[in-house]
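Researcher: Next sequence.
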Amino acid sequence: MTHLGSCHCGHVKFEVDGEIASALSCNCSMCQRKGSLMWFVPRSALRLLTPNDNASTYLFNKHLIQHRFCPHCGIHPYGEGTSPSGAAMAAVNLRCIEGIDLAAIPVDHFDGRSM
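Model: Next structure:
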């Protein structure tokens, strides 16, 4: 299934393929403030519908994840990084996906604060 997503103002738009089985909520200093619910997919499943330069990047801590956000509205629709095995991954903020029932998606909690 292909899902459409965007930031609030639409300056950053994307589509992502896959079935959403669960979401991850992290309590690290960044994720707790953003309030995102992340869905991890191979980076190849995420296709930008707007130019890559439309999204800005924020790096923190070990600089392993590129937290991508819209410089106009400030929304963080996705992040990019690599899995422990080295595969390119995307962390899609499910709150930015159109037409899904967030209440129906099981949420796993990750203690990123302790990492």
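Model: Residues 1 and 54 are 25 Å apart (CA to CA). The chain has one domain: 2-114.
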